[in-house]
Amino acid sequence: MESAVPAHLETPRTRHKRVPDDYQPPYPSFVARYKPSVSRVVMAYFGVQYGGAAPAAAIDALKELAGLFAMDGGPSHWDRARYADQSGSENVVTVAYWDNLARFDAWFARAREMWTGRQREGIGTFIEVLRPIVTRHETLFSSPDRPEGIAVVAEGMSGEVQEHAYWGGMRDRIPQSQTDAMAPAGTLGLIRDGARLRVVAHDNLCLIRSGQDWSDTEASERKLYLDDVEPVLREGMDFLRDDGLAIGCYANRYMQVLTADGSASEKSYGQSWWKSLAALERWAESHPTHVKIFGAAMKYLSTLGPSAKLRLYHEVTVAAADEQFFEYLNCHPKTGMLAAVDTVST
Question: What is the DSSP letter of 176?
Fold first, then answer.
């Protein structure tokens, strides 16, 4: 049994784990392992927003973005997903990952100007970027043989880890939590840069991407997931999308992952911005919407046991203020982090 915190990031704890040293989790889970030389990772969300069917401007922008990804300095991995937001707008979100900050920085200046520096008829665009030090980040996978998201750029997967299957495991897997409460500090602000709106976020903002892959399930298991679990998950995701601000969720997207040809896959993920890790933990541990999700998932897994082929994963980051970038062009005011900002500075 391994610790989720890699040996080279272990430090004497001033804040203790939620479980004793002899804790044995009831089922296996795994985490991504980066090369020790990797000190930062980058996750960059590029969104395009429109009403109705995708206009030519949106299609052209996505093609141009894919072309930039293929250039020198582009990401080691990217994927694309779609969702309808609370205003009824369609959004296509492409998230790209790097494990080399210098490579990203050299690439990003051109990408930013292409994506949010250019007016396009009938669409909005946005960029949301975190570039955390690795001590501020964690992952978790139900199986080690199919990485998703940031884990695709990692060196590999761990063996079975101890810190999971209990409330508080998410925090315990973040190396920073050994000595830091990671409490939010500061306030949100909004800067107008011509037509662009840039959100200035506070310290210890939290991001979670939490995914489901049912592509390996056979007919009976797929039906059980889609009939009994997915509707409950969607209900919780819709709550966070529409009413999450009151509990510290700045924005939530429940997205269908797209295949290379743009069709829907049998994968989805929720992606949300939170005021703090503590706010995310409170929702997960005690809010009725997540209690219902957890109950449906446990019933599903207990029914199928080890034969379950549903794959689950997540990645969580608690980012310092200088590790964040949020910019929006021609998007409605409930888009992403704009929904959380109610003051404007010029």
Answer: G
What is the helix (H) or strand (E) element at residue 97, kind and residue range?
strand 90-98
Q: State how far the alpha carbon of 62 is from the alpha carbons of 55, 82, 328, in Å.
A: 11, 12, 16
**Active site annotation includes 314:** yes
Element counts in the chain: helices (H) and strands (E) = 7, 14
- List residues bridging with 204 in a β-sheet: none
Token couple for 48: 């395009």
Distances 316 to 67, 132, 210, 271 between C-alpha atoms, Å: 28, 11, 8, 10
Kindly give, in sequence order, each residue whose CB lies less than 8 Å from that of residue 230, ignoring residues fewer than 6 positions away. Answer: 212
- The pairing of beta strand 124-130 with beta strand 264-274: unpaired
pLDDT for the residue numbered 342: 64
Residue type, 29: S
Residue 54 contacts residue 146 (beta carbons within 8 Å): no
Q: What is the reported pTM? A: 0.94
Q: What is the pLDDT of residues 267-321, one digit of tens each?
A: 999 999 999 999 999 999 889 998 888 888 888 887 887 888 999 999 999 999 9
Give the residue ranges of DSSP H helices in 252-316.
277-286, 288-304
Q: For residue 133, which phi and psi values (nearest 5 degrees)? A: -65, 150
Catalytic residue, from 16, 202, 314, 332: name it. Answer: 314
Taking the mean position of all CA atoms in its chain, how far away is CA 86?
Answer: 19
Q: Are 212 and 296 in contact (CB under 8 A)?
A: no
How far, in Å, CA of 17 to CA of 138, rounded? 15
Side chain identity, residue 330: N
C-alpha–C-alpha distance, residues 299 and 280, integer Å: 23
Mean pLDDT of all residues belonging to the chain: 93
Angle between helices 288-304 and 230-243 (to 10 degrees): 160
Residue type at position 246: A
